[in-house]
Design a protein that fits this description.
Number of helices: 2
Number of strands: 32
Distance between the termini: 20 Å
Strand content: 35-45%
Structural class: mainly beta
Shape: rod-shaped
Amino acid sequence: MLRSMYTAISSLNLHQTYLDVVANNIANVNTYAYKTSSVTFQNQFAQTLWSGAAPSGDLGGVNPAQVGLGVQLGTITKDFTQGTLTSTGKSNDLAIQGEGFFVYSDGTNTYYSRDGALEMDADGYLVNGATGFRIQGWLATGTGATATVNTSGALSDISFPLNTALASATTSVSLGGNLSAETAGGGAYPATIGVYDSQGVLHSITITFTKSSTVDNTWTWAASGDGATATGTLVFDEDGQYVSGSGNITVPDTGGADPIVFAIDYSNLTQLATDSDISINASDGLEAGTFSGFYQTPANGEIYGVYSNGMTQLIGMLAIASFTNPSGLSVVGQNMYEISPNSGDPNIGPAGTGGRGTIASGYLEGSNVDLGQEFTNMILAERGFQAASRIITTSDEMLQELVNLKR
């Protein structure tokens, strides 16, 4: 049989594989986080008809004569260049700008993906919305301003405290308004404010302002209610503007909560010839609120829980994995990859560090398939297949001629 027929068969098989890869790329043109694949060819083993010879004496050298025996697959390689970021309007959709992968777990296996379409499931875990795989990161320890994340610790599922409540004790109060300049010496004006303890219980405190009978533009104040005791002095200038005066008020422990210690800021008070009227400008205390949602901060992947009282609490931080050779990862479907012997081990850390990309909230990464290039590749695969089939046809005709020699 003719060598050319078997050579053409190898070309047919390879161009079919080439077309399969192109078809898969085009099929995933709208798949979020999909990375296009490319194919390379290699020539196969060549049959040597005679070996070459070196020049000697008056004779020149002779080149070897070899007949190639077809083509074989070289590589099918993933291209991990950045895809276009598409705005989704959902804060829990995440995209990585730069190198890296989100880390997911199904409880047994670990997967890596550029797909950051996240949802909170019924048990309060942050998961990939399509697969249910739980995204991995580090949970925060502590509450309030003292909450921290240890990024050198072991990875864990990101979970939210669904059935918990959070309160914030008052630490500062800013008052605004006016103390009437027409008040006679010894005259008093009481202002009642509300402050919260560490359990979210509201306490009513009355601050009584009394105009000095002996010193112009000077008032004393005294706190009372729920055991609070504190006094101080306020001074205004000739224009009725605040000059000095502040103080701390302590409310003793009641009902098992920590004592409330808060600073009073009087700098927004005036002393003008109008009615006395004082109210709270700002206060940092909050009543108890239940968990109501979450959001991710841009760039570094910190996750915060949002409570019904307006409080936010650091829950944890997402982990990002980078690889020496991401093209060596094995595709397992559902936009997921697994490590392989040639991908190297994952280098895991926070976003924006160690060459890892940053996280964009409200975006998903689109496919990086170039349709123009893929249709060009489709034509090349089709023509290559067509040319190889012609070789088989021609080889068949030559064999037919050989058979006909007997006639």
